[in-house]
Amino acid sequence: MSAQNAAGAAFVTGASAGTGREIALALASAGYDVAVLGRRTEALEALAQDIGKLGRKALVLTADVREATELEGALDKLLVWSDGAIDVVVNAAGTTGPLSPHIGDFTLADFDSTVATNLRAPFIVLNRLLPVMRKAGNGRIVNIGGNHGMRGRAGRSSYSASKWGLRGLTRSAALEAGPDGVTVNYIAPGPIAIPRMKANWKAQAEAGGVSEEEALRAYVANMGIPLGKPSEAEDIVAMVMYLVGPGGRNITGQELVIDGGATVL
Ligand SMILES: NC(=O)c1ccc[n+]([C@@H]2O[C@H](COP(=O)([O-])OP(=O)(O)OC[C@H]3O[C@@H](n4cnc5c(N)ncnc54)[C@H](OP(=O)(O)O)[C@@H]3O)[C@@H](O)[C@H]2O)c1
After folding, report:
1. Where are the domains of the chain?
2. Can you give the pLDDT at residue 243?
3. pLDDT (tens digit, 9 = 90+) per residue, 90-102?
4. Which of ligand 1's atoms lies nearest the C-alpha of 43?
5. What distance in angstroms lies between residue 45's CA and the mean position of ligand 1's atoms?
6. Could you tell me what percent of the chain has a pLDDT over 70?
7. Which of 1, 78, 91, 125 is deepest in the core (most CB within 10 A)?
8. Taking 70 as the threshold, does the pLDDT of residue 1 lie above it?
9. How do residues 146-180 score in pLDDT, each as one tens digit?
10. Whose alpha carbon is nearest atom 18 of ligand 1?
């Protein structure tokens, strides 16, 4: 941990790519030392270097969040690094799992893997870190869910169920931890234009023989997004930073949907 001027210690899962990476960088820019977790050590080390360039310390934690022992081992290392104090936790690691099979064409292993990533892992993190934060009398936890945790969708049963379950975990943790000054909230993004999604849209354009703009327009129409565009990672980052900043002081147990209005209908 850096001895001087840290806003505190933050922990971000799913930081090796996409939205989690941007959240980790925003937290570092805001003065936090940041522990970053994922399976891809090289990507995490590159991120740690970027955090270093922002003048903050980083800890790289390599773990598969589906493996309880690995994740718990990483949490042990985290608490040693942070001298037992954690101010911000962002559970961003997530997977969509199989996208199109309907119930009946699904393997139990696929279902378990999705639920272990999106729901059980945040529980393991909270099970270890929430008592630490409650004892300290402060802390902010943000769970990254999805708008398919707010509604069902054919072909996304395991994803929807896991993100829906994360809402229950969020609300219950908020009720338990509120009296100790710890907030726990849930962000429900719709599609985010991160590299993985952009690659999907590009592939759809190539497969359909249309331009990338046309493919994106068709995707947006299919997803029923009134504002007519996917989110950018910075939209999710801004909400995380609001929740961990002064504005989030009295907000807990909430689900903040950032999806261009797709779930309003
Ligand atoms: N992108 C979207 O359109 C969208 C929409 C709604 C919700 N979300 C949610 O937003 C969050 C971030 O997603 P994203 O799409 O921005 O990121 P992404 O590019 O899909 O990256 C996912 C991140 O989660 C980590 N991760 C996945 N499985 C893991 C495992 N078993 N163990 C450890 N780490 C694991 C990955 O790290 P490694 O590969 O290094 O393990 C990576 O850092 C997720 O919770 C996702 O469900 C995304």
Report:
1. 8-192+232-258, 193-230
2. 98
3. 999 999 998 889 9
4. 40
5. 17
6. 98
7. 91
8. no
9. 999 999 999 999 999 999 999 999 999 999 999 99
10. 18
Q: What share of the chain is helix, strand, coil (3-state, %, to 5)?
A: 50, 15, 35
- Catalytic member of 32, 53, 77, 159: 159
Q: Distance between CA atoms of 116 and 39, rounded to whole angstroms?
A: 15
163 is catalytic: yes
40 lines ligand 1 (CB under 6 A): yes
Given the structure tokens 């429900």, which residue do they identify?
Answer: 188
User: What is the CA(190)–ligand 1 centre distance, in A?
Assistant: 13
The answer to whether 38 and 20 have CB atoms below 8 angstroms apart is: yes
Helix (H/G/I), strand (E/B), else coil: 175 = helix
Residue 186 to residues 4, 104, 209, 227, Cα–Cα distance (Å): 31, 30, 38, 22
Per-residue pLDDT reduced to its tens digit, 206-243: 999 999 999 999 999 999 999 999 999 999 999 999 99
Where in the chain does DSSP place strands (E)? Answer: 8-13, 32-38, 58-62, 88-91, 139-144, 182-189, 255-258
Nearest residue (by CA) to ligand 1, atom 25, is 14
CATH architecture assignment, domain 8-192+232-258: 3-Layer(aba) Sandwich (3.40)
- 2: confidence class by pLDDT, cuts 50, 70, 90: very low
Looking at residue 4, its pLDDT comes to 55
DSSP bridge pairs for 82:
none
Res. 3: pLDDT tops 60? no
What is the dihedral sign for C-alpha 157, 161, 163, 167?
positive
Q: What DSSP string describes 141-170? A: EEEE--GGGTS--TT-HHHHHHHHHHHHHH
User: Is 197 touching ligand 1 by the criterion CB < 6 Å?
Assistant: yes
Strand-pair category, 58-62 with 32-38 = parallel
